[in-house]
């Protein structure tokens, strides 16, 4: 890519490296503290659950295990994302955070399934539960989870790893409350079935967190349009705001991470209009109105450069505003081009 190309403009490629570095540094520290607190008490819960015979404690420990793994991998992802892009990964390593969140979400489904199976076994073969030990461990878990929640509360809530961690911790808070309730019932009434009943409740909480993580991480991995951006609003907004812009099509919006939305588009402009100035205006508008800091814009006069280049059988759409027909060619990036009709 030639930086002196008059039709290529870097004004829309502001990656906010300074802010990102500061934000990631703060997130990294907070997620490390949360991981240490969560991992330490997870071990205490496993020991307490085995000693007391409480499935609810073991279920909550299983949830905390996934939390610890999520936090530890999240910390590693922040460390890895410091590496700059290279010839093999031109966007860098930021998306590793999303991959970590997706894997952790899948692991949550496995943990939840194990808890439900064990709860059914406990219903069929009730076991003795030491209510006092269970209560002490559960109260300790609640205190730790509250501390972890406050550590993460001041972090960047738009970050997928941080958001996932907060969801996990909220699930842990409810799990600790469930264990406390179960311990109280056992101490006062001796009714042990409350333990597997509430452990199933904890597993449902885990499943909710798992679904959200897998859904949101999968959306990013599948190049889905960020939920904060409506493509149908983007096209008319640009045409209205940028003088000389006739129509916009071939719009693709996706994200490397939820904090890094990207876009490519074709812009059909009026004959005689300045392509470089319009490109800059489009990028400024994308940045200010839609928070898209990286955009590739292809300038066209009259005809779409992709006309007649469709692959046989490819999925295509009509664009009523410009009469264009295009193929979803993925998130291909080329240099901003000035294309005139043949």
UniProtKB/TrEMBL annotation:
Membrane topology per record: Multi-pass membrane protein
- What is this protein called in UniProt? Cobalt-zinc-cadmium efflux system protein
- Origin species: Fulvimarina manganoxydans
Any Pfam family the entry gives: Cation_efflux
Among its keywords, does the record have Transmembrane? yes
Q: Give the stretches traversing the membrane.
A: 31-51, 57-78, 98-117, 129-152, 164-191, 197-214
Q: Which NCBIfam families match?
A: CDF (TIGR01297)
Q: Which residues form the Cation efflux protein transmembrane domain?
A: 32-222
Q: Where in the cell is it found?
A: Membrane
Query: In its keyword annotation, does this UniProt entry include Transmembrane helix?
Result: yes
């Amino acid at each position: 890519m030639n930086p002196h190309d008059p039709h290529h403009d870097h004004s829309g490629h502001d990656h906010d490296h300074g802010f990102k570095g500061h934000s990631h540094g703060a997130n990294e520290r907070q997620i490390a503290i949360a991981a240490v607190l969560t991992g330490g008490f997870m071990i205490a819960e496993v020991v307490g659950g085995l000693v007391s015979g409480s499935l609810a404690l073991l279920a909550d420990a299983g949830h905390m295990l996934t939390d610890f793994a999520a936090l530890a991998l999240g910390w590693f992802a922040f460390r890895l994302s410091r590496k700059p892009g290279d010839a093999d990964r031109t966007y860098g390593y930021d998306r590793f955070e999303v991959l970590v969140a997706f894997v952790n979400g899948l692991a949550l489904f496995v943990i939840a399934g194990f808890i439900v199976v064990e709860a059914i076994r406990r219903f069929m073969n009730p076991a003795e539960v030491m209510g006092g030990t269970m209560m002490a461990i559960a109260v300790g878990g609640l205190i730790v989870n509250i501390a972890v929640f406050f550590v993460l509360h001041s972090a960047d809530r738009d970050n997928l790893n941080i958001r996932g961690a907060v969801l996990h911790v909220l699930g842990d808070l409810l799990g600790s409350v469930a264990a406390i309730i179960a311990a109280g019932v056992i101490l006062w009434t001796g009714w042990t079935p409350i333990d597997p009943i509430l452990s199933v409740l904890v597993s449902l909480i885990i499943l909710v967190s798992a679904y959200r993580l897998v859904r949101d991480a999968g959306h990013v991995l599948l190049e889905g349009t960020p939920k904060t951006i409506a493509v149908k609003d983007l096209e008319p907004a640009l045409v209205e705001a940028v003088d000389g812009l006739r129509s916009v099509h071939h719009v693709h919006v996706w994200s490397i991470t939820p904090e890094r939305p990207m876009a490519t588009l074709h812009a059909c402009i009026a004959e005689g209009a300045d392509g470089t100035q319009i490109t800059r205006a489009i990028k400024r508008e994308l940045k200010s109105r839609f928070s898209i800091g990286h955009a590739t814009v292809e300038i066209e006069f009259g005809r779409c450069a992709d006309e007649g280049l469709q692959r046989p059988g490819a999925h295509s759409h009509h664009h009523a505003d410009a009469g264009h027909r295009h193929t979803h060619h993925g998130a291909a990036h080329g240099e901003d081009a000035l294309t005139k009709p043949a």
